[in-house]
Design goal:
TIM Barrel, metal ion binding (chains A, B), homodimer, alpha/beta, two-stranded antiparallel sheet, 301 residues
């Protein structure tokens, strides 16, 4: 029986990042046919947005070196979007060759992470995104923008809210249709989430991407929903983020999110049983148990 | 830097259940001198309420068979309360012999759990509590009442809110100063929490006790704080609850709670670094890593 809560949306879109953000951070390299089946199972469970893979150079992310082959194999269903991460123009070319209709770019909210992850300054990273976004739009391809380190980073501490808003607004200004505000190291708390979303003026084009490193992801999601956000990133079974620590998790687990949303009577279109069985199936292939609490609880029973 | 959130209390009392609810559910039997040091470290970290042990029969809970000896050894500090769980009059006698000034009784919100855990009906359980509470009050001993299975139980499904309120109000009517509403199997979601607390009319004598079995404990805590609750039960390092599953947790971890409260600028009087080092110290003695996300994240760094 659902128990709705005042001030929350009636429907939430879960943006599934498992095949890309999850698998790119797993130690195991998963065979392409397993990836294709994984994505197919996710669509079967009701997902309408599944970030499929990334055209980042295989030198950096060998786990996703099969991006082209995966897209060729993929059984694309009507009504399901399969965005692909694209780091630069070369990546965009490859995405276009493979008939991709939605891409995502990856920006930093902090100077240090821009330097370390993108080899750019906070300011000059936009020179990299500008041609990617404008050429994508010319081809009718929608662009989502990730902003990482929105709540803090390991070098600079808490990220100033106005700095995140400035980065985000430049990305929206380029023509991105959605901003995913990432708590990459999982340090945020609910009041910080509310303050950041309110600072954007409108939650309309915002999504949230929480990591569970400090156990805060679901509480933060609740705060984001109250602030009007209706798109929440999550990863099947909580895969990715922190592959080397046995029981640590990175990404918010889709199942833990869906448990909360179902309890609140918020529609997602997702079938929790199918999600759990997909996570259990995938865990067997990854050779480690799912870090999702819901998967652990339901897989036992 | 804290980011406060509208409608939350300025100060929260963390009711620490680790030494009792945590250790009674651990497979390991911890030596009494380790327990005494554990409790001392908790007081040192700023705790003002530490549930120390239980006078339940050692046949049922061998882990706490040393309750009397522990209380004798305990260095009770001024300003710190050390409540003890008491199941019946025999337990109360032993608690009084050991100079206990605060006890807790353990009730069920559902018929099936009353039968299985207390060997009583939902209605007849009060015959057991009545003499315990009235004699305790005659001795100037305060009584907290736990109500378990407030959100659902494994046999009956969701627990009707009016049934929880009826049980809770009878316990308050006996003279209990505080009701701890327990989500023993961890199935609750935030709207359910709000509805239950509101059904009580006033949150004043309510505490909440969440389990993280489905990852919902912190989101539910946020809902409880919004509904006016200012006492939250938690267990150091998340110990207890589910000792036989490697990475599953039962009780909400004190550190994960304190991370959220600190981020929200809510005072607790607790020193997070000392809590984490206590959990790390205890994990060594229990021979398994702490399931707390915050402990895992901070102990690495």
């Amino acid at each position: 029986m659902p128990y709705p809560m005042e001030g929350l949306p009636r429907r939430v879109t879960v943006y599934e990042v498992g095949p890309r953000d999850g698998l790119q951070n797993e130690a195991a390299i998963v065979p392409v046919e397993v990836k294709a089946e994984f994505i197919d199972r996710l669509a079967d469970a009701g997902h309408t947005v599944i970030e499929a893979t990334s055209f980042v150079h295989p030198r950096w992310v060998p786990q996703l070196a099969d991006a082209g082959e995966l897209l060729t194999r993929l059984d694309r269903r009507p009504g399901v979007r399969y965005p692909v991460l694209v780091p630069n123009e070369r990546g965009l070319d490859r995405a276009l060759e493979h008939g991709v209709t939605e891409i995502a770019v990856f920006a930093s909210a902090t100077e240090t992470f821009a330097a370390k992850n993108l080899n750019r300054t906070l300011d000059s990273q936009f020179e990299m995104f500008e041609p990617v976004v404008s050429r994508a739009l010319q081809h009718g391809v929608q662009v989502r923008a990730y902003v990482s380190m929105c709540f803090g980073d390991p070098w600079e501490g808490p990220t100033p809210i106005e700095q995140v808003v400035a980065v985000g607004e430049r990305l929206l200004g380029l023509g991105c249709h959605e901003l995913s505000l990432g708590d990459t190291i999982g340090v945020g708390t609910p009041g910080h989430v509310t303050a950041l979303i309110e600072a954007f003026g409108s939650p309309e084009r915002l999504a949230v991407h929480f990591h569970d490193t400090y156990g805060q992801a679901l509480g933060n999601t609740l705060a984001a929903l109250r602030a009007g956000v209706t798109t929440v990133d999550a990863s099947t079974g909580g895969i990715g983020g922190c592959p080397y620590a046995e029981s640590a998790t990175g990404n918010l687990a889709t199942e833990d999110l869906v448990w909360m949303l179902e309890g609140l009577g918020i529609e997602t279109g997702l079938d929790l049983d199918k999600l759990v069985s997909t996570s259990t199936w995938l865990a067997d292939r990854l050779g480690r148990p799912s870090p999702s609490r819901v998967v652990q609880a339901l897989a036992k029973g």
